[in-house]
Write a structure and sequence with these properties.
The chain is mainly alpha-helical. It has 20 helices and two strands. It has a two-stranded antiparallel ribbon. Helix 7 runs antiparallel to helix 8, helix 8 packs across helix 13 and helix 19 crosses helix 20.
């Protein structure tokens, strides 16, 4: 329910149940529809996200920091690479990627008194980075730890160019510290404190942690648990922020969040910086930053947040400002990730929310559009306030001119095709089949598209390996053929018909079949996927799920025993009777199974949406202001209880914690 302003109204469940009761039997309306079949849906979804988050974050990882002690030649090579704007993390082996992130923090700590100010030993930073790296999903071709390092290096390079941090090459001089000359810094950026710089670096390296390789639009359309918890507002960014907090607390950095004086400011700046990476609020940021440059009287904290947001936004979409070949490489990686999402959306019968290019001309025109719409205006605006960044705005304009030339050349080639030329291969094949997403963070997936819950958790969210070396699952299901032996899905384009290891080569298409249905996707022998977050587990997971089952049973029993059946309704009636809890907790949970009859086991049954109970404010609406909303579900699921996949159990710690 909502008022005329579109805001949700909280529900006095007890009062409404009494006032609207049906013949004094307590069957009054309590904020949901009878057809919803989910009186406790929001609570269950919240538990779902929380348990998965805590289980994932609390898993112990290997704390052998071999990336710290590099040989001199390797260290020198990485230091020099990090000092260049031509930096290409995608070409580095995994261990050197995390070593580069550590080196950047080492360089930051060369600022005089920096370690005393933040009071975090470099050893804790190393443990934090290794834990963070393991929670990035390396199956993503774009939103992986290489991208996180790319953004971190860009942020550091911007800070160095502005005179705020020392050059990375200072690490080649043993023991030398660095003192900032405030007079030589750009005035706008000089408002940042050393603690702000540390928070900005944490945000940069962690801004996409846990990313499933899917977009916010997918979260909303699929009605995932994360979308329900965060009310469709910057869903992934709020998840990233919450995970960063949990990883910090797990690795002895939590005191930065809890200091009486600076803790709240640290959290607000961290929150505002991470939320700014949501491109859905891009134009709000542009408006606010323009006001800042025009002399608007903003509070000091908001000014600092806006500066950090400007830096991380430029870094997050810095690809168009990199040298052309580097920019082209990242564009291809993103297109491949979008192709995988489009394949999953078609499989789940969801509306497409991404449009990967199906030709080189389309790729070039897409880069021109993105550059003109987002990258160039952003860099030019930020360069007005931080003049030292003008060189990156200039590189963006140069790349734009090169993409225009490229598009013109490709268009001319299309107009004059060579005789006897064969159809070209698709531009970017999907890097993942639909079932490969089953090892993504479960709350980021639709409830009908989950791995079985009775399978325990792996040692970590995803081993830090590249796609070519992902270890196959050791679960009992790994020996059986893929559940996705075939799925009748339309594909990204008429020429886009991926067939992974087909049993036989498909016959050539006849001219008369051009108007027929899209080709059938056959995934008969898909490579074994990496272990799901819910696929293998330590023995302690059984107790976690047991406790969660009891909590869910208690919620259900409380409602059924008091709201629907008792004549009276009062606050204490939410406490269930021991008999009801015992009866429900002893019942065996329904375990979803994936169909193996050759068709998709997924139905596009809608799952309800809900409101976030969290109020996350970074100072203003454009800097991440989220208003609190009531726990009033508005589900529209019409599937029967037997047909529904049972809700998983657990959720993100409130982002304000």
């Amino acid at each position: 329910m909502s008022d005329a302003m579109g805001r949700r109204r909280s529900v006095d469940v007890g009062g409404l149940a009494l006032a609207l009761s049906d013949e004094n039997r307590g069957h009054g309306w309590g904020g949901w529809e009878e057809t919803d079949c989910g009186e406790t849906r929001y609570a269950e979804v919240l538990i779902d996200v929380r348990v998965h988050t805590e289980t994932m974050v609390s898993q112990e990882c290997d704390h052998i920091h071999s990336f710290i002690n590099l040989n001199f030649d390797t260290r020198q090579r990485l230091v020099e690479s990090l000092s260049s704007w031509h930096f290409e993390p995608l070409k580095l082996p995994d261990e050197e990627v995390i070593a580069c992130a550590y080196i950047l923090f080492e360089a930051l700590y060369r600022i005089e008194h920096m370690q005393d100010i933040v009071a975090v030993p470099l050893g804790c930073v190393a443990t934090f980075l290794q834990h963070l790296c393991q929670l990035y999903r390396q199956a993503n071709t774009y939103h992986n730890f290489q991208h996180a390092l790319d953004v971190f290096q860009a942020v550091y390079h911007f800070l160095f160019t502005s005179g705020m941090v020392p050059p990375v090459t200072l690490l080649l001089e043993d023991g030398r510290t660095w003192t900032r000359d405030r007079e030589s810094c750009d005035p706008l950026i000089s408002c940042l404190t050393d603690e702000d710089l540390f928070a900005l670096c944490i945000a940069a390296v962690g801004h996409d942690v846990g990313h499933p390789g899917l977009t916010n639009a997918f979260m909303k359309n699929a009605k995932t648990p994360l979308a329900v918890v965060y009310d469709d507002k910057s869903v992934l960014e709020q998840m990233h922020y919450s995970l960063i907090l949990q990883i910090m607390r797990h690795n002895n950095l939590g005191f930065l969040l809890d200091r009486p004086a600076s803790g709240p400011l640290f959290r607000k700046l961290l929150l505002g910086t991470v939320l700014a990476t949501d491109m859905g609020v891009h134009f709000d940021f542009m408006t606010e930053f323009r006001r800042l440059l025009d002399g608007a009287d903003f509070p000091e904290l908001k000014q600092r947040i806006l500066v950090c947001q400007a830096l991380i936004k430029c870094a997050d979409i810095s690809n168009p400002s990199r040298p052309y070949l580097v920019s082209q490489h990242w564009a291809t990686a993103l297109e491949s990730e979008w192709s995988s999402q489009l394949l999953l959306e078609k499989h789940l019968q969801l509306p497409p929310s991404v449009r990967p290019s199906d030709s080189r001309v389309g790729e070039a025109n897409g880069q021109i559009w993105f550059n003109n719409t987002f990258a160039r205006p952003l860099f030019e605006l930020v360069a007005e306030g931080i003049p030292s960044l003008e060189q990156f705005a200039c590189q963006t304009r140069e790349n734009l001119a090169l993409w225009h030339l490229r598009a013109a050349e490709l268009a001319a080639e299309q107009e004059q095709p060579s005789e006897g030329s064969e159809p070209k291969a698709p531009l970017n094949w999907p890097s993942q089949a639909p079932n490969d997403f089953l090892n993504a963070f479960p709350p980021a997936l639709p409830e009908s598209f989950r791995a079985p819950e009775d399978l325990p958790y792996p040692v970590c969210y995803h081993h830090h390996r590249r796609l070519s070396t992902i270890a196959p699952s050791t679960s009992s299901s790994s020996s059986t053929p893929s559940h996705y032996e075939s799925c009748e899905s339309s594909l990204p384009s008429p020429s886009f018909s991926p067939v992974i290891e087909p049993a036989a080569a498909p016959p050539p298409a006849s001219p008369s079949s051009s108007g027929s249905l899209p080709p059938r996707l056959e995934l008969t022998t898909v490579q074994s996927r990496a272990p799901s977050v819910a696929s293998t587990a330590p023995s302690t997971s059984a107790s976690v799920f047991s406790i969660t089952n009891e909590a869910t049973a208690a919620i259900r029993a409380a409602y059924k025993a008091s709201v629907r059946k008792k004549k009276s309704f009062h606050r204490s009636s939410w406490n269930p009777s021991p008999t009801a809890v015992t009866a429900l907790s002893q019942s065996a949970p329904v375990v979803p199974t994936l169909a193996t009859n050759g068709r998709s086991p997924v139905s596009p049954a809608g799952s309800g949406s809900g409101d976030s109970p969290m109020s996350l404010s970074a100072g203003s609406q454009s800097t991440g202001m989220l208003t609190p909303s009531p726990l009033t579900p508005e589900g529209n699921a019409t599937t029967t209880t037997e047909a529904r996949t049972p809700l998983l159990k657990a959720a993100l710690v409130p982002a304000s914690s």
